[in-house]
Design brief:
The chain is α/β, with parallel strands linked by helices. It is built from 28 helices and 18 strands.
């Protein structure tokens, strides 16, 4: 099979003009009927790796996928490109499933999606009656107990090789360490498989961390963040169910379209939230980690972590849901002392204390990093990166340190004078000189350090104390009401033997004020550029609404009609004939025929208005 043919099929059906890293190699291997294991990050483009060979080979490809929503998404995307793909599952009525099988017998189905639990029941049908081109096992890590998402049903896939010795097996996953990888190969009984591991880097995702914010400041920061992402979908991950509800309530009050998603809701309510999000009826989901696995929405433009996640694995998987289409995705992580206190308790009670504490520590190191954050992430996944990324807050705005010895001494001294019997809130009250009930009851207002830190704003104290914790100057006694205990390293600073270097706190208010000032008096060029940009935005908005209308007519999500990336390209190139429209990346023959006229008409109208 020549390369030419692969490219031609890619363009005809998917409208793309080139392959992503490793796709071409993987596809060639599958076309040679070899077993293949492909590891790619979320958004890396795994689906095309088996969909293209399915289209280029006689017979039907059987795709095994763990969730009905994932099957639905892929089947809709394929059908939207005019490809005969269907799913047999419990969501269909049996007549539909029968008709489907009939179509398979007639060789009319190129890809058939099926759940693992259903597979064995259908084995006779598959064995006897249809010609199978390949088996694709999506989310293959689910077969392994070592993976983080083991599913018992997946173990049934062991028998595939026995029943179908000659059909190539393709296993795909976004998360598999060495043990899981071996386990997948062994359990599926793969024959001398070719293993492809692509880089886990997602350069289009920006990375940013904010330290020590309280609820009010977080919400203010989030609203500003969302205003920069008008009409763009995003997810806010919170640690608790209550957290999701609170954040959703606060954001709704500000007029944002928000839904909540967590495991405590009814199935129906969760499905509704997911469906509204996928179809762009709401802009934001406030969710616990329960959300995300079942969706392939390619135009999630941002992900915020309202709390620190428990490990880098979870974090990376969650931010990975942004920017699957390759366009920029913005991510923001908040982390505060109370997160650490709570997560430490969870880790303590988890029964795997050591491992979970280690994971949490690595997560904290990431949040506290002085060096390029992407280097830390990739390093964690065993990749080395030889340059800074330029797309994280550390690269863009390297932290500056100052001699903070006096600040640290004030805090440690206050800790000492309370005989190390206070938690963080009371300590700050003492430093600020707030006469709260506890302070008065315990007589802390008589301490020499009372109000010694009144010149430092409360929120800065929270930040500095978090830095001090991470520098190892004190510890939190989780089993003693979270009281603060000075360490050996802390003593050295307290008694003047060593100096403490703290990071200068930068708050975004400063930036904003100057921006506002600037906005008052734009120069003539600025004004011209601005009006040109807003004209472009108008066109994009018009096209976005057209896409939404076409999606609603067919009851499919807008990003399946056209991805954000394709929509951006249309906006840039402004095709005025269906042929020009068809040249744009992401438009195959089918979409060209179906949408070409309407989109180019909208553009012609826009251009006429001048
Ligand atoms: P994964 O399953 O690895 O998360 P997908 O298969 O869903 O990723 O692909 C992510 C996005 O990238 C989809 O919108 C897909 O259409 C797009 N894509 C895949 N391959 C290419 C390619 N060669 N060129 C352009 N876009 C691609
Ligand atoms: Zn960086």
């Amino acid at each position: 099979m020549t390369n030419e043919n692969m490219l031609k099929t890619l363009k005809t059906y998917f409208g793309y003009t080139g392959f992503r890293p490793l796709q071409e190699e993987i596809i060639s291997t599958i076309l040679q009927k070899k077993d293949t294991l492909a590891l790619m990050p979320t958004g890396g483009g795994k689906s095309i790796c088996f969909q293209l060979p399915a289209l280029m080979t006689e017979g039907t490809a059987i795709v095994i996928s763990p969730l009905i929503s994932l099957m639905k998404d892929q089947v809709e995307a394929l059908q939207a490109n005019g490809i005969p793909a269907y799913a047999i599952n419990s969501a269909n009525d049996e007549t539909t499933n029968l008709q489907l099988k009939q179509a398979c017998l007639q060789g009319k189905v190129k890809l058939l999606y099926i759940s693992p639990e259903r597979l064995l029941g259908e084995i006779n049908f598959l064995l006897r009656d249809i010609r199978i081109s390949l088996f694709a096992i999506d989310e293959a890590h689910c077969i392994s107990q070592w993976g983080h998402d083991f599913r018992l049903e997946y173990t049934q896939l062991k028998s595939l090789r026995k029943f179908f010795p000659d059909v190539p097996i393709v296993a795909l996953t976004a998360t598999a360490d060495k043990i899981t990888r071996k386990d997948i190969i062994r359990q599926l009984d793969m024959r001398d498989p070719k293993v492809f591991i692509s880089s886990f880097d997602r350069p289009n995702l920006s990375l940013e961390v904010r330290r020590g914010y309280q609820q009010k400041e977080k919400i203010r920061t989030i609203s500003r963040f969302i205003l920069r992402h008008r009409n763009e979908s995003g997810i806010i991950y919170c640690m608790t169910r209550k957290g999701t509800e609170k954040v959703a309530e606060l954001l709704s009050k500000e007029g944002f379209r928000v839904a909540v998603y967590h495991a405590g809701m009814s199935n129906a309510a969760r499905e509704q939230a997911q469906d509204d999000f996928i179809n762009d009826r709401i802009q934001i989901v406030c969710a616990t980690i329960a959300f995300g696995m079942g969706i392939d929405k390619s135009n999630v433009r941002w992900v915020i972590h309202y709390n620190l996640p428990k490990s880098i694995e979870s974090f990376y998987q969650e931010i990975g849901r942004a920017g699957r289409d390759g366009l920029p995705g913005e991510t923001l992580l908040f982390y505060s002392l109370s997160d650490i206190i709570l997560l430490t308790r969870f880790a303590d009670e988890s029964g795997q204390q050591e491992i979970n504490m280690e994971k949490l520590n690595r997560m904290q190191q990431y949040a506290e990093s002085d060096i390029c954050r992407r280097r830390i992430l990739l390093n964690y996944f065993g990749e080395t990166m030889d340059h800074d990324c330029g797309n994280c807050d550390v690269c863009k705005n390297p932290p500056e340190r100052f001699d903070g010895t006096i600040i640290v001494q004030k805090a440690l001294s206050a800790m000492m004078r309370t005989e190390q019997n206070v938690g963080i809130h009371t300590l700050i009250d003492i430093l600020k000189g707030f006469s709260t009930q506890e302070v008065l009851e315990k007589g802390y207002h008589n301490l020499k350090t009372f109000a010694a830190g009144r010149d430092v704003p409360t929120k800065d104290w929270r930040d500095y104390l978090l830095q001090m914790l991470n520098l190892g100057y004190f510890e939190i006694a989780y089993n003693e009401n979270n009281h603060l205990k000075i360490t050996e390293a802390g003593r050295k600073v307290l008694f003047g033997h060593e100096r403490a270097w703290l990071v200068v706190i930068k708050r975004e208010e400063h930036g904003n004020r100057t921006e506002k000032k600037k906005a008052k008096s734009p120069t003539a060029t600025e004004a011209a550029l601005f009006s040109e940009a807003s004209r472009e935005e108008n066109l994009f908005e018009t096209l976005r609404l057209l896409r939404k209308r076409l999606a609603d007519q067919q009851a499919i999500p807008p990003y399946i009609v056209l991805s954000d990336k394709t929509l951006r390209l249309i906006c840039e190139r402004k095709p005025v004939t269906p042929d020009e429209f068809g040249e744009i990346s992401g438009i195959g023959e089918f979409k060209k025929a179906r949408y070409g006229e309407e989109f180019t008409q909208a553009i012609r109208r826009f251009l006429q208005k001048g």
